[in-house]
Here is the input.
Amino acid sequence: MFNLEDANKKSKETMDTMLKSYGTLTKAFQAIATEAADYSKKAFEDSIAHVEKITTVKSVEAAFELQTKYMKSAYEGYIAEATKIGEMYADLAKDAYKPYEAPIAKAAAAVKSATAAAA
Here is the structure.
C-alpha cells in the first residue's frame, strides 16, 4: 500500500542528494574555469614576453633557437595544463556520483532481494 510519509521521506532524500551533487558540480566547474583562465592569462603573458625577446635578436640562428625553446616550453606547459584539467574533470565526475552511491546500492540490494524472493 502507498504510504505518503515514506514517499515524502524518499522525496526529501532524493532532493538532498541532488542538491549535494549540484553543489559539488558548481564548485568543480568554477575551479576548472578559474584554472583555465589563469592558464590562458599566463600563456598570453609568456607569448608577449617571447615576442619582445625575439624582436631584439640580432641573428637568424639566435631567433631560431629562441623560437624552438619557446615552442618547447609552450607545448610542455599546454600538456601539463591539459593533464591537470583532465584530472579535475575526472575528480568532478567522481564527486558528482558520490552522493548517489548509497541510494543506488540500496536500490540494487532491494531489487536483488525481491528477485530472490520471487524465485
